[in-house]
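Subject: design request, 151 residues
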């Protein structure tokens, strides 16, 4: 397990959003939105510990993130064991799967989901360790510091 600091990514991508006035105004729509929201949480490939969720919410409130930003979790090539984790704030992209976990908007590139399936993001705030950690059941090998893995 390694610890990570957040990265604030600003890709300056503007997207057109569907105006709320175009949504049906009935109870069935509201119910279907609640079911869709529950499914987005239930199907998320990662989970957040209570400590991680609280730390992320605190960062989101204190850093005054722009509208539409959420938590991006992913992987990239590199590191001692072959792949490193990505953790930061970003806008949703076309290639993303969007989820809501613990009330936090979560974006994961579709190609990264396989490597992150079942991963838990945790947060430690102690004297010996401080920061976000990843507990990934798919990792077949990790480096000594835990910031990279092989799957």
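Subject: RE: design request

Done. Sequence follows.
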């Amino acid at each position: 397990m390694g610890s990570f600091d957040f990265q604030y990514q600003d890709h300056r991508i503007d997207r057109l959003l569907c105006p709320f006035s175009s949504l049906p105004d009935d109870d069935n729509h509201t119910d279907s939105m609640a079911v869709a929201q529950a499914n987005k949480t239930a199907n998320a490939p990662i989970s957040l510990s209570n400590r991680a969720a609280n730390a992320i919410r605190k960062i989101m409130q204190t850093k005054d993130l722009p509208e539409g930003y959420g938590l991006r979790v992913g992987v990239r090539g590199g590191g001692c064991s072959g792949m490193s984790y990505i953790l930061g704030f970003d806008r949703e992209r076309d290639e993303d799967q969007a989820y809501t976990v613990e009330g936090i908007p979560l974006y994961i590139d579709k190609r990264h989901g396989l490597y992150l399936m079942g991963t838990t993001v945790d947060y430690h705030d102690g004297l010996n360790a401080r920061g976000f950690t990843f507990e990934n059941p798919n990792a077949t090998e990790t480096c000594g510091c835990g910031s990279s893995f092989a799957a």
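The chain has one domain: 28-150.
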